[in-house]
Specification:
Helix content: under 10%
Largest sheet: 17 strands, parallel
Strand content: 35-45%
Distance between the termini: 51 Å
Shape: globular
Number of domains: 3
Radius of gyration: 30 Å
């Protein structure tokens, strides 16, 4: 195992005296590997020091792990789909973490404890990100089928919770916090749990944030808040709650003690609000179908036109969504920020001899030669140098090179079709407005400026596109290659 530790440092002018000045320096973080160096995750944790990272290869690890208060990162190499920590023994918690510590990229299953079957968090500073909690069972009278916090304030981000079970007593929940806890719960998906999704029973002064989560199809309900004390510091914002038994359930208190409930979409639950007046139409809360892509298939991305798009609040919102996409300044409700589908092609270089459509992000392209209708499709390599975007693709039947000036919106495409070894024909297309027209035969480019060439077969040394001041941007060399001029 490679672990570097710095003990002392020789200091400049004092070195000639033979002194080594001792200074308190942090140990270098080490990387520990499971199972190549340690057969179990727990063995690696036991050997680790604060700041170390434990990388875990794919597999199922039948063990219960305890961080022992160490601020170390335990991370799977290949993600939760192929890396599982399966709890062992009845009544045991699978993962115990905190204060500090980070858990990333595992499926956590097989937990059967009364208090935090999947994971128990204590203290502050822990991060639980990118995991799947599936098939954990909270014991009778407990709390936290997947995650519990008793004086615990972790960050819980971008996890999936499903098939976690609990009873119906008031502390029960997939994620449940009690006493001095102020967790941050963002970008998570709670789906199909026979258990309440989120439960908070906290004293006055605690500040949990439950923001931009998607909570769907949980038979025990969506969110429960104990309102025997004022809970306005408990923030629930930008969440989507659909098809649960109850959306928001407040208990044991009065409306004056209600939590901060803003910009949430609560729709088609058996009961949308219980213990509190219907919040629809107040503080940005709405009740309308979120237009998921496919709720039955558990695809909770938003369709174009979803009322959840842009309906969230930026206050406390995470900067990225479940998929890691930036949320920007217009915040959507739920775990997924709507990302418009990229157009198949966003650049069209066309002329009398043919046209080339290309996607500037993916490199996908389609070339049509107009005289005979020849069609070539494929995906090339896109590179950008300065303001010039270049697409290249070489195959046994073709050599394609296209350039596009991002500043001047001028384009050039040279398509060499290889008919047989040593036999080819070349189409050159010059276009001075590639983004303003539909690609089709019969659509011509504007007239070429002085010194330009408006399509057809380029001649060696011909300047084929110029910028707005008349300076050449590209030309064809003797081999019919595009030369980008600096």
């Amino acid at each position: 195992m490679l672990k570097h530790r710095v003990e002392c440092v020789a200091a400049g002018a004092f070195a000639f005296l033979g002194f080594c000045l001792l200074a308190p320096m942090p140990a270098w973080a080490a990387q520990l590997n499971v199972p190549s160096q340690f057969s179990t995750i727990q063995a690696a944790i036991n050997a680790a020091s604060g700041g170390d990272t434990i990388l875990v290869q794919p597999g199922t690890y039948n063990e219960n792990i305890v961080f022992n208060g160490k601020n170390v990162t335990v991370q799977s190499v290949a993600g939760p789909g192929v890396t599982t920590i399966h709890g062992v023994g009845f009544g045991n918690t699978v993962v115990t973490i905190g204060p500090g510590g980070t858990l990333i990229g595992f499926t956590i299953t097989g937990g059967t404890a009364s208090f935090g079957a999947g994971l128990s968090a204590v203290g502050t500073g822990s991060v639980i990100r990118g995991n799947i909690f599936d098939g954990n069972s909270e014991g009778s009278g407990g709390f936290g089928a997947a995650i519990s916090g008793n004086n615990g304030s972790p960050t819980i981000d971008r996890n999936v919770f499903r098939n976690n079970t609990c009873d119906s007593q008031f502390l029960s929940g997939v994620v449940s916090f009690v006493n001095g806890s102020s967790p941050i719960i963002t970008n998570n998906i709670f789906e199909s749990n026979p258990c309440r999704a989120v439960q908070m029973t906290l004293p006055v002064g605690n500040t949990p944030s439950v923001i931009n989560n998607t909570i769907v199809g949980n038979s025990g309900g969506g969110v429960r808040v104990d309102t025997r004390i004022p809970t306005s510091l408990q923030v629930f914002r930008n969440n989507i709650l659909v098809s649960n038994s109850v959306g928001l359930f407040t208990e044991f208190g009065t409306a004056a003690n209600a939590p901060t409930w803003t910009n949430n979409l609560v729709f088609n639950n058996t009961t949308n609000y219980s213990g509190i007046a219907d919040q629809t139409g107040l503080n940005g809360n709405i009740s309308v179908s979120p237009l998921f892509v496919n709720q039955a298939a558990m695809d909770f991305h938003l369709q174009a036109g979803s009322p959840a798009i842009g309906a969230g609040s930026p206050l406390g919102a995470p900067s990225t969504d479940f998929d890691g996409n930036p949320r920007g300044s217009s915040i959507d409700m739920g775990a997924f920020q709507f990302v418009p589908a990229l157009p198949m092609f966003d650049i069209c270089i066309t002329g009398p001899s043919g046209f080339l459509q290309l996607n500037s992000k993916t490199g996908a392209y389609s070339f049509t030669r107009c005289p005979d209708g020849l069609l070539l499709t494929g995906t090339g390599r896109v590179s950008v140098t300065g303001s010039i975007l270049v697409l290249t693709d070489s195959k046994p039947d073709r050599n394609i090179r296209a350039s596009f000036s991002l500043n001047q919106l001028t384009g050039l495409a040279i398509v060499q079709v290889i008919v047989a070894p040593g036999v080819s024909n070349t189409t050159t297309i010059v276009d001075r407005d590639p983004t303003s027209k539909t690609c089709a035969c019969g659509v011509s480019s504007p007239p070429a400026p002085t010194g330009g060439n408006n399509g057809g077969t380029g001649q060696p040394g011909t300047v084929v596109t110029v910028d707005g001041s008349g300076r050449p941007v590209a030309m064809i060399d003797a081999s019919n290659n595009v030369i980008i001029l600096k």
